[in-house]
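Fill in residues.
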């Protein structure tokens, strides 16, 4: 008889100990790469090892190399945490081990994705017919949305890119803000369009695309895609989506919105004005592993043109059992074939939180970001951005070296963790508040740490 209880009990005890310790855990890794290699490595095992011992040694081996991104004092990279319901559902997802590519392979996983897709469309206020794909993250969400865009703008030009490829196709111009996220460029490389197709559009001092600059750049002839942004990764700023959509659609251009974290502002009654006009776009990318606080990995692509979405992604093969009764085959909406049932943790998170619970997380993170900025500004730290959402961008002593040393010093100290960046040619500290557990005490303690490191350096 297989012993499931031993290793699973070991994993449960280790997991709960880790989670219970997060509030006071040092926010940062404690071991070097060399130390981790020495602890975890060694020769290839020559024979079996008891599974429970494997789990125990694994947990002990990685302990000092973990970056506790689920902590309420982790402010790097716009990472979220994991809510109890989504984490538990993720464990069950692993246990059930469903291949969620086809309805026939897992009716339950396909139906959960279908239900969850409808909830997401309603939460974001998008057209009811919007299609949804569950992908790994914003990188593949941008890829998939832009694949649908590539299909449609070339179809309008009389070209079938799925059949004929790009050789000889009409060139596509991609108009994107100068402060776009790098996943846009990478997606265009993956799609065979290359980065030379990008026409950079001027932005304002917060990184918002200037509608007047877009109007000057749009052309009347040839396929065009406009990439807008809801939530600049440094400042949190939002492009003027209504103006962008009106201008782009007047030129038959497709509008794709990168809203990796910013799209969730739509759920908040306090912040929804930031995404005014979002429903006018053609496709959207966002993450559930950011503000919905679902375990990694969990990205979402949404498309107002399901036929273009399906045309860019779907596949047919004689051996596949694809449903003929209208049931949703997930592989029609994402670039993967075999895939994890990512919709299950998203379903659980939404079911547990509801609209008001999600809005509360977004609103609280916004308030905490403003609190962090306020404390630092009151102590003569330069805040470089308007804190419209969850991003705080600060600079110390108007000096690149000092700023980078403060970032490194805070990371080394371990009370909190935030990353550095470069904004408009100047070094800055980027503080991203997106964890569902972050509260005033976390902010106050972290802000005092930043100021203490700065005083020590001064």
């Amino acid at each position: 008889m297989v012993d499931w209880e031993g290793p699973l009990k070991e994993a449960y005890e280790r997991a709960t100990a880790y989670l219970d310790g997060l509030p006071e855990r040092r926010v940062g890794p404690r071991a070097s790469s060399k130390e981790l290699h020495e602890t975890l490595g060694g020769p290839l095992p020559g024979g079996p090892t008891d599974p429970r011992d494997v789990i125990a040694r694994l947990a002990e081996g990685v302990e000092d190399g973990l970056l506790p991104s689920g902590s309420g004092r982790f402010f790097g990279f716009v990472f979220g945490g994991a809510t109890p319901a989504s984490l538990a559902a993720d464990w069950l997802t692993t246990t059930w081990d469903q291949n969620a590519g086809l309805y026939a392979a897992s009716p339950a996983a396909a139906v959960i994705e279908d239900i969850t897709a409808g909830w997401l469309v309603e939460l974001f206020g998008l057209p009811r017919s919007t299609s949804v794909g569950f992908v790994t993250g914003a990188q593949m969400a941008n890829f998939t949305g832009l694949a649908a865009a590539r299909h449609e703008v070339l179809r309008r030009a009389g070209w079938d890119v799925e059949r004929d490829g790009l050789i000889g196709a009409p060139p596509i111009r991609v108009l994107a803000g100068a402060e776009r996220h790098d996943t846009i460029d990478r997606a265009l490389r993956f799609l065979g369009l290359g980065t030379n197709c990008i026409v950079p559009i001027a932005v304002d001092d917060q990184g918002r695309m200037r509608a007047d600059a877009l109007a000057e750049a749009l052309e009347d002839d040839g396929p065009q895609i406009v990439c807008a942004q809801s939530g600049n990764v440094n400042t949190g700023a939002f492009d003027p989506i209504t103006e962008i959509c009106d201008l782009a659609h007047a030129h038959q251009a497709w509008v794709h919105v990168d809203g990796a974290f910013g799209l969730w502002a739509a759920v908040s009654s306090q912040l929804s004005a930031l995404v005014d006009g979002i429903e006018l776009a053609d496709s959207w990318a966002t993450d559930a592993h950011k503000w919905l606080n679902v375990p990694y990995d969990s990205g979402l692509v949404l498309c107002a043109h399901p036929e273009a979405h399906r045309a860019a992604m779907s596949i047919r093969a004689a051996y596949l059992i694809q449903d003929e009764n209208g049931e949703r085959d997930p592989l029609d909406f994402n670039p993967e074939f075999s895939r994890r049932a990512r919709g299950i943790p998203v379903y659980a998170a939404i079911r547990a939180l509801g609209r008001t619970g999600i809005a509360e997380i977004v609103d609280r993170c916004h308030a905490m970001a403003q609190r962090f900025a306020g404390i630092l500004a009151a102590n003569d730290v330069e805040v470089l951005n308007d804190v419209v959402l969850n991003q705080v961008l600060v600079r110390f002593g108007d000096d690149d070296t000092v700023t980078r040393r403060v970032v490194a010093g805070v990371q080394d100290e371990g009370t909190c963790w935030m990353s550095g960046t470069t904004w408009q040619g100047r070094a800055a500290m980027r503080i991203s508040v997106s964890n569902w557990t972050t509260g005033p005490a976390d902010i106050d303690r972290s802000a005092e740490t930043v100021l203490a490191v700065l005083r020590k350096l001064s």
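The chain has a mean pLDDT of 96.
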